[in-house]
Fold:
Amino acid sequence: MTATVAPRDRVRMAGPGWWLANVATITGRNLHRLVRVPTLIAFATAQPVLFVLLFTYAWGGAVRPPGVARYIDYALPGIWVLAIAFGASQTGVAIADDLATGMIDRFRALPMTRSAVLAGRTTADAARNLFVLALMTGVATAIGFRFHAGATAALAAVALAVAVGLAFSWIFAMLGLLVRDPESAGIGGLLAVIPLIFTSSTFVPVATFPGWLQAVAKVNPITVTVDALRALCLGGAAPTQVWPALAWIGGLLAVTVPAAVLRYRRTTAR
Amino acid sequence: MKRFGRVTALGGVDLAVPAGTVLGLLGPNGAGKTTMVRVLATLLPPDAGRATVLGLDVATRPGAVRRVIGVSGQYAAVDGYLTGRENLRMIGRLSGLGRRSARHRAEELLHELDLTDAAARTARTYSGGMRRRLDVAASLVARPRVLFLDEPTTGLDPRGRLGLWRLIGQLSAEGTTVLLTTQYLEEADRLADSIVVLDHGVVIAMGTAEQLKAQVGGDRLELQASPGTDTHALAGAMAGLGTGEATISADDSRVVIPVAHGPAILPEVAARLARSGLRVSDLALRRPSLDDVFLALTGTSAAPSTSDTATVGSRR
Structure:
């Protein structure tokens, strides 16, 4: 008979490998949490589907954007962004909750890399967004939506939408660290999202806005990204639309990622 | 030294915990116990002074400190949406254990802390005591050489408390250095090799449990004078029995005398009462409580030291 000896596989706790391992562990944690709460899955699935159906049937008859046969072809890229933004606001709640319950204290006393708690959360968000995008596109297709610019452009659209989601997630992670109270983080998140969404080209062409609001809408990053997504879905001047969107996303990430990580390093519960 | 705005939470702490021993940090709410633990666990930077863990400075080498410590805070910090097993595996992975080691270690600790039956349930279905034990298990995952336990038995039932005491004793016997905060003198008495009493961020007493009790004067003899009995005469009748001054409280006609060999002097107390003819309505021999320690110590509190040093896990 052989005695079983405790396995002693230790990991090298430095370098990019250690960072990746930490991010993977935290991503796993967040994905586990997601499937643990059946009501959360139900609501999180129903919400994007409802968005697709409500906007298509309630507004589809009234709004006739120029150059599109069906309103849903016009609206779906915007609804993607709306659903992703709503989903990302949950990240602020989750991070504030981790602070309030002492989870972040526990993580900070471990030899893990500092940025992994936030990076793992936003990576899990990206995985969830991929699922939500597929679900919404499936439902939209059943009621008449079609990609008009080919498979490559369609895939590029999905990739861009995931990238937009990543920027949102980091912004909300930062908000969660600053606000610290889970309920405030939730309300604050929506408060930030709703005006940005409605003063953009998400649901209606910007040309229908009054002049002063057009000026706001044109510099709204949501307009820029929704226009880029729309170009990739419908065809048209894609490159000239996509570059500004990528610049916005890159710029936002370049600011929010280091700022949030710095904030995390300095944050303590209470 | 640690300040929060204008409040100095820790202002005169000089302590050393020899490696492999248990230090009990005793004090009332707001004494600075948790702040002390948080500074040593690298969660709060000290504003002045120096704190080391196994010779590693917490301010300049926090990463190295985190590899040798385990921390269980005052509130159970476990992920309620993960199962007990998943919580421990996650902490294992984040502490540098490989996948197999993390699994193995999780099972070991679930068994040791009596959580095997609940291992597959999400932690939010746990009772307070179970969450507490899971939190302690999480602090042990990486087999830390230095363990910080902030009021670890708060919320545990007597069985859980005894189990945890046994575990702490075992860890200490295996060479783990333990810093334990508590509000219970009994707990410190039972577990700690030495005790530090903290109040308003200042160390007001330090020593073994025996030394502290001696400082407080051991047991106390309490005499409740019957109506009409002169408390001063009562105190006078007991002269020479105590180890210190008798305290006479006129409000409630009570005389309290610190005594060394409690039970042994009771016959003498009875004899003197009979001889003097003084009447008492109640007579009690009481062990010193934490309240007594404070009453005895806060009056003679040490002046804040100017250089704080905390050394945990130093060579004996």
